[in-house]
Amino acid sequence: DRWSHEAFGVARLPGEPSRSEQRQIYETHAGRRMGDTHWYETFAAARYGAIVVRVMNRTVARGLMPADNTIWIENQAIDCLAALMRDGSDAG
């Protein structure tokens, strides 16, 4: 959600819940508050960033992208991770 809608500004599809609505839905069905999810979101962003790096390195290794590209470090996944690390906790 954060990556596609907040980082890229991609419009939500009709009926797609907002970030706060997703939290409310989860809390309603779980029967308890979620609390601060910042650590989990940062971990997920780091994991996704690692996947992007690996895919980009494979693309270079296969000769599909020049070796001097910087997409492995300059990409939206890493930008999202950097933003999460700057933002800190988002309890609520």
Q: Could you characterize what this model shows?
A:
The structure is a single chain. The protein has four helices and no strands. The chain starts with a helix and ends in a 5-residue tail after the last helix. Helix content is 59%, strand content 0%. By secondary structure, the chain is an all-alpha fold. The protein is elongated, with a radius of gyration of 16 Å. Helix 3 runs antiparallel to helix 4 (76-87). The protein has helices spanning 2-7, 19-30, 38-61, 76-87. The longest helix is centred in the middle third of the chain and has 24 residues, at 38-61.
Query: What's the number of extended β-strand segments?
Result: 0
- Secondary-structure element series: HHHH
Class of secondary structure makeup = mainly alpha
CA-based gyration radius: 16 Å
Largest sheet, in brief, is: none
Give the terminus-to-terminus CA distance. 16 Å
Quick check: average pLDDT? 85
Q: Which percent range fits the helix content? A: 55-70%
Oligomer: single chain
Strand content: under 5%
**Structure annotation, total helices:** 4
Stretches with pLDDT under 50, minimum 5 residues: none
Shape label: elongated
